[in-house]
Amino acid sequence: MFSKLSLNMSRFSFYELILLLINSCHTLVDWLLAAIYDLVRFLLFRNRDVYRSESVKRLRKLPLHLGLVVVEEDELSIADLARIVAWSVLVGISCISVYDHRGHLKLKWKEEELRTKSTKEVEKLLSKKKTPSSFQALSSPLTQQNSSNKPNDAINLLQKKNGFHKHSTTILGSQLHVLGPKDGQSNLISVTKELCSQDNLRFEDIDVLYVDSLMQKTSGFPDPDLVFRFGSTQSMLGFLPWQLRLSEIFSLRTHKNLGFSEYFNCLDAFADIKQRCGI
Asked: What CATH class is the domain 48-271?
C-alpha cells in the first residue's frame, strides 16, 4: 500500500517538474523574442536619416494635444521620453502630456529631469544642419523664427503656478504637461464642486457639452486627440478618463529606443483618419 502511494507521489512530482520546465521554456522564448525585436529595431533606426522635410510636409494634419501614456511596468526611460517630446515640439504639436500610471514622473527631481532633457534634446536637434529645414513646414512660427538663432536663445521655459499648470512647461510655444493618476480624479472633483456651487443651475442645463467646457476650463488644455500608449496593458490606467471620448489611441510596445520612423508612421496614420465624432 505504502509503495503504491510513494509511486503515485513520485509520478505527481515528475509531472510537476515537466510543467515547470515547459513554463520556463516559454518564459525564456518570450524574453529572447523581445530582445531580438529591440535589437533589430535599434539597428534599423539608429543610422537612418529620418528627418526628411518632404515626409513631414505631406502630413495633412497634426494633433492639437498628443498624450504619451506609459503603462509599462519596467523602469521609465527619461531620455527616451524626452526625445519623443522634442520630436513633438519640433513637428509643431502645441500640447504634449506625459502620463505615468505609477506617478513616478510627478516626483520633483524626475519631472525636472524630463523638462531639462527635453529642452536639451530640442537644442541638439536645432543645432543639426538638417533638422530645422526638416521640421520647418509644420513648426510653429516661434519655432521657425528661433531655429536660425542660437539654440540657447530659442528655448523658453515658463513654470506655471497652480492646478495642472503647476506641472506645465512651455518649450518653443508647445506646452508640456506632466500628469499622474491623481490628476484626472482631481479634475473631476473640481468640476463636481463647481456644479454643486452654482445655486441657479438647473438639472436640465447639465449636459455633456457643459461638463466638457468645465473640464477644459479646469485642466487648461484641450482634450487629447491622439494618444500613444506604451506597453502591453490594454488600459489607460487612469489617464484623463473624461477627455478620452474622441481620442485616437495607438498602442506601441515600449517607449524605449523608439525610432523617429515609427513615431512618424503613427502621425501619418492619424493624419489619414477622418474623425466624425460619432456621426
From this structure: alpha beta
